[in-house]
Amino acid sequence: MINDTYAPSTGTTTFGATFSAPYLYATGYSALYVMKASGLVSQGACSSSGAYEYISGNNVMAYCNGGLKVPMGTSPGAGGAGCSAPTAVRGGMNFSGGKMNYCDGTNWVPIN
């Protein structure tokens, strides 16, 4: 179930949602992001919820869920020297096709 509301008096949009595993969601933004998490493979421990980093050993971008680094794509990624169209180093980010993408060293990987 997804509920969204718009408050004309304040110009704010809020979202309310009910999801169960394996879905992850983030609220409090101007959009509601829903991701399906499958086969959670931690990339290590962390403590700063929402922080993200490129894990070069596995060629994957990961975010912190408050305890674990969760991969945002297939892990391990392809690896390599960088991406083209546009050119970027491993871990580079790009907005294309309506989604954020990261470079896994060879391919642009959409963050779902």
Estimate what percentage of residues fall within beta strands: 35-45%
State the helicity in percent bands. under 10%
> Structural class of the secondary elements?
mainly beta
Low-confidence stretches: 1-6, 21-25
Please give the count of helices.
Answer: 0
Find the count of extended strands (DSSP E, 2+ residues): 10
Largest sheet: 3 strands, antiparallel
Instruction: Going across the biggest sheet, name each strand in turn.
Output: 5-6-7
Q: Looking at the structure, what is the overall shape?
A: globular
Radius of gyration: 16 Å
Order of helices and strands: EEEEEEEEEE
Could you tell me the mean pLDDT? 76
Q: State the distance separating the first and last CA atoms.
A: 19 Å
Structure description:
- This protein is mainly beta and 112 residues long.
- The protein contains no helices and ten strands.
- The protein has strands at residues 2-7, 12-17, 23-26, 33-36, 52-55, 60-64, 69-71, 93-96, 99-103, 108-110.
- The strands form four sheets. Strands 5-6-7 form a three-stranded antiparallel beta sheet, with no helix packed on it. A three-stranded antiparallel beta sheet has the order 8-9-10, with no helix packed on it.
- A hairpin with a 4-residue loop joins strand 5 (52-55) and strand 6 (60-64).
- It is globular and about 35 Å long.
- The model is unreliable at 1-6 and 21-25 (pLDDT under 50).
